[in-house]
Structures are given as structure tokens and as C-alpha cells.
Amino acid sequence: MLQVLMAIWPLFALIIAGHLMRRWQFPSETFWPGAERLNYFILFPALLVASLVNAPLDNPAMPRLALGVFTALGIGWVSLLILRRVCKWPAARFGVFSQAQLRFNTYLGLAIVGNLFGAEGLGIAAVLLALMVPAVNVLSVWALSAEGGVSPRTLLLPILKNPLILGCVVGALINLSGLGLPGGSDRLLSLMAAASLPLGLLSVGAALQPQQLRSQLAPLAWNTAIRLLIMPLLAWGVALTLGLPLLETAVVVVFFAIPTATASYILTRQLGGDAPLMAGVITLQTLLSIASLPLILGLLGF
């Protein structure tokens, strides 16, 4: 557990630094939206391409990895549908609760995997992202829009325009082609990738809204407990049942143990969900994951 804590505390230090920098308006309030767009559309896709180019796509464990990911997501989704029927949640709240349990902070996940498991872990994580990002985006949009009706265009267009998906597709195609990254382009992508995660973690901190923790304490508490404790145990149980290798199991558990994505707030606001509740969930999950991540990963032997 101590080894895990030593590996991840610098990542949370960057998150806290980002929050303090924005609170103190350094370098300026207008800096953060531009920084987040730069990372989301340019630097982070470059990281995914660089990671997928050398990812072990022919690894015999990959089909089981895909099955494990979709099984865990499926169990979580069906459980949410049952709870929605029992509790009679409107779409505005159901969309928040769905994103709170199924989405994940990609920047933090890749940073943790990179620190703990190196380049091999990042390659597996990039494959996992190619599987999970489209699935959780479809489920999130459906959950927020279900009462108003959804169309294939509403569900699929955000995925087709998602730069993370495009980065995964480009990286996988280069990998399968066997061409590699010629002419120094591998070094260019490495430089861009190196800038992506620190900037992403600072942006995560800048997006936190502690003022939203003052109300709706019950839904904040149980959403956080399920995401940070129950979901990683579920993922671990599914991986164990399927016989996934240790490294693949560890990567899956990390992505089910990290807090939900800060981008969930933007999607919730755009589609008419309960944006203040979503902001509170993101903030509480992120803050408490500082303690829960070392605990979960340490207890499970990673």
C-alpha cells in the first residue's frame, strides 16, 4: 500500500495545485478553458496514439479484457436501471448517477497506470480506453436524454467527433499496419504525450467546485462510496472470474476505482441534468480517491 501511495501522491499534488492556481487566478481565469481544450483535442490524443502504436493488440488476453470490461459495465448499468425504476429518478438525476458510476477520469487513470506499470501498462490502458470511452459516452447521453427520446444521431455523433476515440483509432491502425512512426514522428508524439498528463491533472484540479459539497449530502455520499469502493471490487471479481493476467486485472481495477470524469459536468449541463449535483459528485469523488485508491490497490495486491 505504501508503494502505491508513493506512486500516486504526486498526481494528486498536481490536482490540488491546479485547484489552488485557479482559485488564485494564476496565470489567469481565461487560461484554463484554453488549456483544457488544447489537452483534450491535441495533446491527449497524441498520448493515446503513442501508447497504442506499440500496444500488444495480439495479446491473447485482449478478448478476455474486452469481455471483462463490458461485463463490469453491464452489471453496473443494469443495477442503475433497476434502481431508477425503484427510486423513480427523473432523467436529470439518473444521468448524474449513471455518469458517477460508469465514467472515469482518463487523465488520472493513465497517470496512475503509467506511474505504477510503465509503458506496458499504458499500452493496455489505451486498448481499454478504446473499448470503454464509446460505451460510457453512449450510456451517459442515453441516461440524460431518455425522457426526451434519443436518436442514433444523438448517441453516435458525439462518439464520432470524440478526439479520444479518433486517437485510439489512429493508433490502432498504425499498430496493425506495422508501419510504426517514421521520421522522428515518434519523438514528436512522445514530447506531446509528456505534456498531456501534467496539464490534464492541473485542469482536473481547476475544475473542482468544493462549494457544491454543501447540499445533497446523501446522494453525494452513496454515489462516492459505490464508485470508489464497490465498482473496483466488482471489476476485480469479474477479472478474477475470467482469469485475466495480473497486469490486465490491475489496469481494469484502476479504471473502475478512479473518480468520474470532470467532463461529466459539461455534458450534464448541456443536456439539462442536475449540474450542481454532478459538480458535487465529481469534487467529492476526486478528493476522497486520494485515500481510497491506495487502500483498494493495496488490499488487492497491486
UniProtKB/TrEMBL annotation:
Keyword Metal-binding part of the UniProt annotation: no
Predominant subcellular localization, coarse grouping: membrane
Membrane topology: Multi-pass membrane protein
Keyword Transmembrane helix on entry: yes
Assigned keywords, A-Z: Cell membrane, Membrane, Transmembrane, Transmembrane helix, Transport
GO biological process: transmembrane transport
Name of the protein in its database record: Transporter
Gene3D superfamilies: 1.20.1530.20
Family in the record: Belongs to the auxin efflux carrier (TC 2.A.69) family.
Subcellular compartments: Cell membrane
InterPro entries according to UniProt: Mem_transp_PIN-like, Na+/solute_symporter_sf
Residue ranges of the TM segments: 6-26, 38-57, 63-83, 125-144, 164-182, 188-208, 220-244, 250-267, 279-300
GO cellular component: plasma membrane
